[in-house]
Design a protein that fits this description.
single chain; 292 residues; alpha+beta; Rossmann fold; Tumour Suppressor Smad4; seven-stranded mixed sheet; six-stranded antiparallel sheet; 7 helices; 19 strands; 36% strand; elongated
Length: 292
């Protein structure tokens, strides 16, 4: 039974204020405590008894997370929930642009929220990746990535060589601008723009998509998610930058000799699904897929 709902809002989205107040009142009338993150608390009208928490704290104390914003807001929340190791359902309400992950519109929120509080909403489990940077055999960085892990050359750099191993088996050395390792959820993001395939979110797989490879024979490949991926980038120039980007939100410069390890996280992300549209409905509506 849901007793506490964490409410996360996209920053500087002033139009959210009346909606946040309406949701808070609706929850309180049903004996459910709303807990706001800092941005949601700033946007909603203040009350003396309102409880606030950081997004990391919400991942620990809430029974359900409501995310108001776009896909970027939901990506940031999904990462925190996975790092917390909790099997916490997330309901995304679209106040962004594309809204591929935050697929619920505000008018359909309350009937679905009623089902979610009662534990009767349809939930889809989505794979999320755990990315580590290994340096001299030791882990120096670890983050989650819901959409993709991307290794690219710096803005003014030449192509880089990427040695890729999957499940302990050597795959190839790609000479390219970079490499995308995408989850099924992220297959419709950067991966799709780079010519990679669309993968249904129920498929337990990852996609390896070279970015602007230096040969026509390099093509994206779908691999089992159970097999860890190791990528060892090599710059052709000692002054050349190699950049690691996670979900387009976290970026860092790799040092020479660093290896990036990507594996499926044990705890998936749980997204509450819209009862009115399927995954293919969203593909057709948001991406104009299969339209003539």
């Amino acid at each position: 039974m849901v007793k506490r709902v964490g409410i996360v809002a996209k920053s500087q989205q002033e139009s959210l204020a009346p909606h946040l107040a309406e949701v808070a009142a609706w929850l309180e009338s049903r004996g459910v405590e709303p807990i706001f993150d800092a941005e949601a608390a700033r946007l909603a009208p203040p009350t003396p008894a309102r409880r606030t928490a950081t997004r990391d704290e919400l991942s620990q104390v809430a029974d359900l997370l409501l995310v108001f914003g776009g896909d970027g807001t939901l990506l940031a929340v999904a990462d925190r929930v996975s790092l917390a190791g909790r099997d916490l359902p997330i309901l995304g309400v679209n106040f962004g642009h594309l809204g591929f992950l935050t697929e619920i519109n505000f008018p359909e929120l309350f009937p679905l929220l009623e089902l979610a509080i009662a534990g009767r909403a349809a939930i889809e489990r989505r794979l999320i990746m755990r990315a580590r940077v290994l340096r001299a055999g030791s882990r120096v960085v670890e983050h989650m990535a819901f959409n993709d892990v991307v290794i690219t050359r710096g803005a003014l750099s030449r192509i880089i060589e990427l040695s890729v191993t999957v499940g302990g088996e050597f795959v190839a050395r790609f000479n390219a601008d970079g490499l995308i390792i995408a989850s099924p959820t992220g297959s419709t993001a950067y991966n799709l723009s780079a010519g990679g395939p669309i993968v249904h979110p129920a498929v337990d797989a990852l996609v390896l998509t070279p970015i602007a490879p230096h040969t026509l024979s390099n093509r994206p490949v779908v691999i089992p998610a159970s097999a860890p991926v190791l990528v060892a980038p090599t710059a052709n120039d000692p002054d050349q930058e190699v950049i690691l980007t996670l979900d387009g939100q976290i970026g860092l410069t790799l040092e020479p000799g660093d290896t990036v390890e990507v594996s499926r996280n044990e705890t998936p992300v749980r997204l509450i699904k819209s009862p009115s549209q399927s995954y293919f409905d969203i593909l057709r509506k948001k991406l104009k897929w299969a339209e003539r």
